[in-house]
Amino acid sequence: MGSVQESELGLRPPFLHRIRPAQLQRADFALALLFLLATVPHITNNGDRRVGPAGALLLLALGAAVPVAIRRRAPIAALVIATASLSMATGLGASFAPDPLIALPMYQVAAVKGRRESLPALALSGVALLVASGIGLAHHPAMGDSTFSVLVSVAAWFVGDSVRVRRAYTAGLAGQAAQRASEALERAQRGVAEERLRIARDLHDVVAHSLSVIAVQSGVGRHVIDSQPEQAKAALAAVETTSRAALGELRRMLGILRRDGVDGPELAPAPGVGDLDELVEEVRGAGIPVELLVGDGVAGSLSPALQLSVYRVVQEALTNVVKHAGPANARVELRREGDDAVVEVLDDGFGNSLKWPVASDLEHHGIVGMRERVAAYGGAIETGPRPEGGFRVLARLPVGGAPQ
Questions:
Q1: Which residues form the domain of 299?
Q2: What was the pLDDT predicted at 195?
Q3: Within 10 Å of residue 70's Cβ, how many Cβ atoms?
């Protein structure tokens, strides 16, 4: 698909990036063969037709051509062979001058090897060429100078080393980009997991509370429908009210999930401290007398997000009272203590008996959800049975806290 998109957009990678390694290797073989073929006629037409010198020149020409063919697979070996062939040719005063071909293996060594390897290779090659030059000048003053070969080697080394550094720099940038992409993906995945956890907590709070109230009221209605029709009607009315409220909450959360732009439908505000009265009335309708105490000015000092957490803690605590406490009275108090907002929910039901799942708190999503909500603001929560009977939930949330 990537190649189709590139062709559709008229974008193509640089020419050298489109050449495959096998094609480059074939090009090297072709270059080596061309050099060897170009050298053979010069050797055969040499004025000195003795087999020995002609054979020696042919071997030197082959030694100068082979490194070009093998430089990508064995750069060090190619440089050694090229240096030896050129040094011997210089010492013998050979006239076919393979001097420029030292550049290719030297470039390859500098381009793929670090400076700890390429610099000594350059130095040894230069020394060998200079020694051969001294010998060649002593016997063949016109053909024994290899200064040009040394200069070509140094230039090729600088070019190859620059290419290697550039490649390393580009690879480093690509690695950093890949790491940043990986970190961004990890953050996105972590955000998705946190959002799923938040949605799970909200769904549990809404569904568990509403279904608990509905279950109690429907049970009451079923038992008194024949003997006390009016009380049964009241229970069914409470079921209807609770169901509608739960549906409204679910619609609000689904609207948040589906909303993908600023032009979406208006959403109802999240519940807060001001909605505790309605929550308490629902629980009272389930047959649990509840006393609600909210300190003066407490609601105004809490952010909307913190008010939602307070509401959910109270909702879950009252849900557990309805589900586990049996016949009981409950008391909800929201007060300010220093820099903390304190939420306390008490009941006098069966919180100190086996009917309350104290031993396995961590297995119950509601209590876990309360702890997570409070911990998100840097607060603390205590849950457990009261010595005088019943159960207690005490949460402290820093007023100035922000979700972590």
A1: 288-404
A2: 67
A3: 18
pTM score of the predicted model: 0.46
Mark which of 156, 183, 210 sits at the end of a domain. 183
* Tens-place pLDDT, residues 205-249: 666 667 777 777 777 777 777 777 777 777 777 777 777 777 777
Q: Which amino acid is at 280?
A: V
Q: 183, 209, 238 — which closes off a domain? A: 183
Q: Is-contact 132 146, C-beta < 8 A?
A: yes
Helix (H) or strand (E) holding 41: helix 21-44
CA trace torsion 119, 121, 123, 127 (10° rounding): 180
Closest to 61 in 3D by CA, of 88, 30, 91, 29: 88
Same domain as 320, residue 173: no
Q: Is residue 236 part of a domain?
A: no
User: Is residue 364 pLDDT above 80, yes or no?
Assistant: no
Asked, for residue 41, whether it belongs to a domain, the answer is yes
The string of DSSP letters for 101-129 reads GGHHHHHHHHHHS-HHHHHHHHHHHHHHH
pLDDT for 267 beyond 80: no
pLDDT digits (tens, 9 = 90+) for 308-336: 888 888 888 888 888 777 778 899 999 99
Nearest alpha carbon to residue 379 among 366, 392, 393, 365: 393
Give the other-Cβ count within 10 Å of 60's Cβ.
23
| Structure token pair of residue 15 | 């020419």
Contacts 24+ apart (CB under 8 A), 136-143: 136/90, 136/91, 136/92, 136/93, 139/91, 139/93, 140/92, 140/93, 142/93, 143/90, 143/93, 143/94, 143/95
